[in-house]
Specification:
single chain, about 475 residues, mainly alpha
């Protein structure tokens, strides 16, 4: 149909761009000489070919990309991305995954969820280890935002894609006058954090390969590791604290990082209401978990309780998913608290998952306003954040988002429980996937290897729903979307 020419053009181009990401793992295989590079070469050729088949029929036809087209492109591309990214997992003899598990692993990486179905990660070839980490890095900021900086040179506008892809409730705020420059600014911050994180890991004792790989997943708030024991493999408090710092930084709104760098003024962080609330939650949760771990004799010293508690609070609170301890065996109270903390997630405009800090802040302020209205029925009581009045339409949108989030979670929880899983496993698996967290509780604490296919597909949908922040995916189900 003529109205989908722009969508077809962008989808084809994006797939061709994505195919290039198959080449670095092939080069890693060549460098280590382990003969594991051919699955990535085959995947490159297949994805490139499909992209060209989609793009060539409309290559010389021009059509304006509308906002509703942006939503369709984002959803189609993430689905296509998940399927395309699964090819190396499916083709490769290691880790020898089924098609369903391959798609799960691919989507988990690209949505920065970090849940895995692979056992024996330490034994995987270097090319596959690199590929898993790389998936999260590209997925972290959104490969579409990367493409927004490239597509204008090909004659395709990007603002519609940016609005559909950017996380958080306030999407029209641009850092720079032009969308291309905005995308570049985001990626400069993202790349700068990745380089700094990688150098810090390397200086702290990681080898270069692990330092780069863990920098990818730390800044992406992904949680994939090159070892089964995750960050706990290194048994280094210095490495753990470096991870804590960069997880915290990556959970902050990247627009805020940009403003701090541009103005050369760190006080910008302190003035931001969302940042203050974000830190307050992390400090409060760390204090509660530390006391709980010590009082229940999970750890015998306050120091160990604090270090383990701090790491897991930041890792799960930002929805990263790294582990230094089997927290799913901790006292039930701490596990449930950490899981609920993941529902809040990172700040809007960060690489974190969850509902986002700013939305919870607005929900709290709206609740307090309703209490004040009961006391003063005739008073004009606007919702304010950072001293500024928040438009009522944004507050309404936040309530709508929260309602849909809870409804979607409940539906998938019941669907997963109906497949025969125990309630704690079903609850934590859906919570971990819709919040793009990764590790859950009970039998999905360490991995999802034992999850049946029906559960895997439900959780794939949960990961996509969480990554696209509900509205972007569900808007396609509205009949009004398809009307001219």
């Amino acid at each position: 149909m003529k109205r989908f020419i722009a969508v077809q053009t962008v989808l084809g181009l994006l797939l061709m761009v994505f195919s290039i990401t198959m080449l670095p793992p092939a080069l890693v295989a060549l460098a280590y000489g382990d003969g594991s590079g051919m699955p990535f070469v085959y995947a490159f050729l297949v994805i490139l070919g499909i992209g060209m088949l989609i793009w060539l029929p409309v290559a010389h036809r021009r059509q304006e990309l509308r906002i509703r087209d942006g939503f369709l492109v984002v959803v189609l591309f993430w689905v296509a991305l998940g399927l395309s990214g699964a090819l190396p997992f499916w083709i490769s003899p290691e880790p020898d995954l089924s098609l369903t598990d391959s798609i799960f692993e691919s989507l988990s990486g690209l949505t920065t969820t970090g849940a895995t179905v692979i056992l024996g990660i330490d034994e995987l070839p270097h090319s596959m280890l690199w590929y898993r980490q790389q998936l999260q890095w590209f997925g972290g900021m959104g490969i579409i935002v990367l493409a927004v900086a490239v597509l204008p040179m090909l004659g395709v506008g990007g603002m519609q894609l940016y609005r559909a892809e950017t996380p958080g409730p306030i999407k029209d705020t641009k850092l720079t006058p032009r969308i291309t420059e905005t995308a570049k600014a985001l990626w400069y911050i993202y790349l700068g954090l990745t380089i700094a994180c990688g150098l810090a890991y390397w200086a702290a004792g990681m080898n270069a390969f692990d330092a780069i790989g863990h920098a990818f997943s730390t800044v992406a708030i992904g949680g994939f590791s090159t070892h089964d024991a995750s960050i706990g493999y290194y048994e280094s408090r210095l490495i753990e604290m470096i991870a804590v710092v960069f997880m915290l930084l990556s959970g902050v709104n990247f627009a805020l990082h940009f403003i701090v760098v541009r103005d050369k003024n760190p006080l910008v962080y302190v003035r931001d209401s969302e940042f203050r609330f974000y830190l307050f939650m992390m400090v409060l949760a760390t204090a509660i978990v530390t006391v709980a771990l010590f009082r229940t004799d999970t750890y015998i010293s306050w120091g160990d309780s604090f270090i383990k508690g701090l790491f897991q609070v930041v890792s799960i609170g930002t929805t990263t998913g790294f582990t230094t301890a089997e927290f799913y065996y901790w006292p039930p109270f701490t596990g449930i608290l950490l899981l609920f903390l993941a529902f809040v997630g990172g700040c809007a405009g960060s690489t974190g998952g969850g509902i986002k800090v700013i939305r919870f802040l607005l929900l709290i302020k709206q609740g307090m306003r309703e209490i004040e209205r009961l006391i003063h029925p005739n008073a004009q009581l606007p919702v304010r954040v950072g001293g500024k009045v928040v438009n009522h339409r944004i507050v309404d949108a936040v309530w709508g988002f929260f309602s849909l989030y809870v409804a979607a979670f409940t539906f998938m929880y019941l669907a997963l429980a109906a497949t025969g899983l125990d309630l704690l496993t079903a609850f934590s698996a859906v919570a971990a996937c819709i919040n793009n967290l990764g590790p859950g509780l009970s039998t999905v604490g360490a991995d999802y290897h034992d999850m049946h296919d029906a559960g895997i597909w439900i959780l794939c949908f949960a990961m996509l729903l969480g990554r696209l922040e509900i509205f972007t995916l569900l808007v396609l189900l509205a009949p009004a979307f398809w009307k001219r």
